[in-house]
What we know:
Blueprint: E1 9-16, E2 32-38, E3 44-54, E4 68-79, H1 85-90, E5 99-106
Antiparallel strand pairs: 1-2, 2-3, 3-4, 4-5
Amino acid sequence: MEVIDASMWVEKGELFEDAGDVGGDIQVGKAFDRRWVHRELPGRVLTIAAYPIQGDGSTPMPPEDAPVHVQWQIQKTICTDIEDRAARSSGRRSPTPTCRSGTRGRSPR
């Protein structure tokens, strides 16, 4: 398991309260995300998103009475434009075309 040294990361901006369809088909409500930038490595950005899912994420159509859980994803990006100017004009945040990214997620299982 990769360990991230939290002391090297600084919060960037505010909590984003409508991060879109981060969880895909299993997401059942709004997604929230928060970004951090690395103190010493320019352009390194972590975005952590959390969103509700019905059931445990193992079946595409869980019963309606299945419990709701929170699932999260960590997206690592390397950007030349960490201000995300293109996305800001559209009202949504996402990696700009000048970013490379990788996503890791965690289900409640």
